Amino acid sequence: MQNFVFYNPTKILFGRNTISSIGPETAAWGSHALLVYGKSSIKQSGLYEQVTSSLQAAEVEITDHGGVFSNPLLSHVQTGIEKVKQNDIDVIVAVGGGSVIDSAKAISAGALVEHDVWKFFSGKKSIKKTLPLTTVLTLAAAGSEMNSGMVITNDSTREKFGFGHQMLHPKTSILDPEITYTVPPDYTAYGAVDAIAHVLEFYMTASDPETPVQDRIMEGLIENAITACNRCLENPTDYNGRANLMWTSTLALNGLTAAGLGRVGFPMHMIEHSLSALYDIPHGAGLSIVIPGWLKWFSKTHPARIASLGKRIFPSADIEEDSDELVATRTITILHNWFGRVNSPTSLEEVDIPQSDIPRIAENALALAKVWRLTNYTAETIEEILHLCR
Amino acid sequence: MQNFVFYNPTKILFGRNTISSIGPETAAWGSHALLVYGKSSIKQSGLYEQVTSSLQAAEVEITDHGGVFSNPLLSHVQTGIEKVKQNDIDVIVAVGGGSVIDSAKAISAGALVEHDVWKFFSGKKSIKKTLPLTTVLTLAAAGSEMNSGMVITNDSTREKFGFGHQMLHPKTSILDPEITYTVPPDYTAYGAVDAIAHVLEFYMTASDPETPVQDRIMEGLIENAITACNRCLENPTDYNGRANLMWTSTLALNGLTAAGLGRVGFPMHMIEHSLSALYDIPHGAGLSIVIPGWLKWFSKTHPARIASLGKRIFPSADIEEDSDELVATRTITILHNWFGRVNSPTSLEEVDIPQSDIPRIAENALALAKVWRLTNYTAETIEEILHLCR
Hints:
homodimer; Dehydroquinate synthase-like, alpha domain; 2 domains; two-stranded antiparallel ribbon; 15 helices
């Protein structure tokens, strides 16, 4: 096991009827909130009313900042920062999924500096302080509700970059599985794929193989993401299906799985970010395209690691004492087929990206590979992986 | 899954060469520390010197408070509280295992009130504030380094009671596996047993069966406690063995495993506390006596739950499609035999407690059962379980 620091001070309120706590949890940190959210669906569902009532009852003034897109945009973050600066706002409330929470995090950091917030993402500036942030989660997927990372797309340059800092941890996140009853099947599946991807990135790229504690946790999370997602697709109002998917996706990227693994990378995300930046496809959909391709490429050099996952969670991957290569191939096929069964795309073709675009995607991805210091990924490597995404 | 609040703000510094951080981590919270520790072994090993040098370099004044016993005593906590009050001490530093950290927690709470600290344990007073606490862990066992609980023995009444409160979380805990190289085989095993017991208590007493996320984590922790302990006994300076045992025992009781399980109990601890309070045997040794007995008693009504654990982590427990009863029995036997293999006692007889003492032990345990609201445990039930501890 490698040395690590684990520090996760986000308070999680999990379960039914927890939304009404957003008022007091926010009032503990400020009296004027920027309320960040996405589409108007939270108004139709009544969630907007629940949140604003609770904030008002706790005497928190509200400035509205709706309209966050999936693959959230820098320009919208910049508008939010202006609102905070002009209105003496002292706390941020995010009501949404990862895109909304990431936007809120970027606003919480950008509102306290004079320079453009993008400089955090491009690595030119570091975060010194942030405004406090509370969240109400509406989608089991990104894990942003309990971590210190954020991903934003620069709409001028079409770069989708991520950045992390301890001070970006939300103070409190409210996770009510019932809110996700209305998440449609496609986004339910994309969320599960995202959680699986977060675990796979660490599991596959860990620089230290002596981490059985973390391995068992990661294997359990992947298994649960699959079984819980299946339950939610079967019955969208299955409380325990929704609850298990929600807690799985939170734990998948809250620092616990990576602690002790040493240096880990996000190569699948690195390539996927280019797909969603260039073609605006949902993040989870892009990931289910990239994951099998990347795993096929990785299995050429590291079949044992993929096989170890399959042996633990896919009994049918290891029928008799097979070679690591064979078990790895079956593991990838099982995952690939499951993506297909939950209607998450598994090839560039399915989302109408022509093979001729591969060099352009690789070039875009390479920029992020440099920022994330994925130094062993050349344009040729990325092209090779993209050719396996079929 | 049941509603829960998860909040664990303890910062963990894990790995080699981390002890020297105790100075700056402590100086962030105060300038005069009460240094709580146990026996003089930390002076022989050089750890005392490492810690005090780091504190002095960070300009933290030190008042010494060594001499904590295993099964820590209220009287020693009370002396520590007096020292804090008389010397304007503003931060507590614990260097030791669970007994030392629990004593430090009790001092951190008791130093800020006028009434006796035992009133927290007897349920007569609640904690409003605590002094900040930093820790250097020397034993993989109790999990106190990353949780909000503490257990103290009242030396006048021979009651060993536990109490928990959010404010008892250490600010920072330093976990250097190399410090545990010198832990002798018996205490290495007792520590692993303690971690296993913490997981088993929750796994077996969870009031909600729909917790696959937590179940997979708990099963992984039990499996790891066993395999890591075996490695440490084989080679006491196996870094990864020590590291995996240390992180396993921390995660076994940091709130993560219990979150979402609903009401859980500590019935095995309830009975063990009487063994160590009355006969002063090590906590882990008492637990390896109680666990198989309690499981045999529990398997009469809940064989499926025990079988589900065995099916996941002991392949030999489920040879062919056996009944839950049979798999549960095999699971208990495997665990019982493993305790024996690592020389942790598995019967009252082994620690020279006569069967005729059982009524007296049950009576003592019943007092804690009342405080912990284990309402379905009568003296007869406890006696029945103790008769199975053989």
